[in-house]
Amino acid sequence: MSSSDSTPAQALKELLIEVTLLHHHVAIASRALAGPSDLTNAQVSILRSLVKDRPQTVPQLASERGIARQPVQRSVDELHAAGFVDFGENPRHKRSRLVRPTPDGRRRLRKMERRQSQWTKPVADDFSVRALRSAAGLLRRIRGRLQHDA
């Protein structure tokens, strides 16, 4: 790429291509880290959100991901059938129940996160904490703008 091709929009396009390629490799690793339960990446993502943040409704989980409610509902139903989430009353909305992790769901996520920590150590070796946090912050800001514009 020549210096005349160096605009923020073109640099962002290059970054997004790399993020897409990175996502593919992370998805493969995530499936391996999920272990014998065969949780999908979507299910792991939902479980992680519920443990990290707080109980949420299916529409809130879908909105956070920028996707339709139906695939999130399917993933939540599968997590419920596996005993990893349950449902609670939502004081703000009678029909939209809160999804929350069960003790088994929390244990499963902790186990996966231990395996993930072992996997990330050699990948992160040559990077500084500052550089990685800066990159995460930049991606968070880009995601925020995309969510805002959607």
- Work out the helix count: 6
Name of the CATH superfamily: Winged helix-like DNA-binding domain superfamily/Winged helix DNA-binding domain
- Structural class of the helices, strands and pairings? mainly alpha
Order of helices and strands: HHHHEEHH
The level-1 CATH class: Mainly Alpha
Distance between the termini: 30 Å
State the share of residues found in helices, binned by percent: 55-70%
Domain count: the total is 1
Cross-sheet strand order for the largest sheet: 1-2
CATH architecture: Orthogonal Bundle
Radius of gyration: 18 Å
For the secondary structure, the number of strands is: 2
The major beta sheet can be summarized as: 2 strands, antiparallel
Overall outline: globular
CATH fold naming? Arc Repressor Mutant, subunit A
Please report which band the strand proportion falls in: under 5%, 5-15%, 15-25%, 25-35%, 35-45% or over 45%.
5-15%
Mean pLDDT: 88
Q: Unreliable stretches, pLDDT < 50, 5 or more residues?
A: none
Task: Put the structure in a nutshell.
The chain is built from six helices and two strands; from the N terminus they run ααααββαα.
Describe the structure.
- This protein is mostly helical and 150 residues long.
- The chain has a single domain (10-149), classed as Arc Repressor Mutant, subunit A (Orthogonal Bundle).
- It has 6 helices and 2 strands, in the order ααααββαα.
- It has helices at 8-34, 41-52, 58-65, 69-81, 103-124, 129-149, and strands at residues 85-88, 98-101.
- The chain has a two-stranded antiparallel ribbon.
- α3 (58-65) crosses α4.
- The longest helix has 27 residues, at 8-34.
